[in-house]
Amino acid sequence: MWKEQTVTGKPAGFFVSTGTQGGGQETTAWTAITQLVHHGMLIVPIGYTFGAGMFKMDSIHGGSPYGAGVFAGDGSIEATETELALAEPQ
Q: What InterPro entries does UniProt report for this protein, alphabetically (predicted)?
């Protein structure tokens, strides 16, 4: 794909999953941006388009301005309603 430049100029974003709250959701997306840049892709972050939902403090949820995310724990935890709602605009 890189040789033929088939993804150059294409939009791309991130959905991340980490095992814990300190799992590095922002760092994971930020680090992966370099791969999109290498391919000439257009980075489309979610930003703060989710509004106040991004800052909900009544439940634990993943996601950041860099992209939607979930806290999966050991893999047995399903995405919360907030996490699913955050992924929708992305």
A: Flavoprotein-like_sf
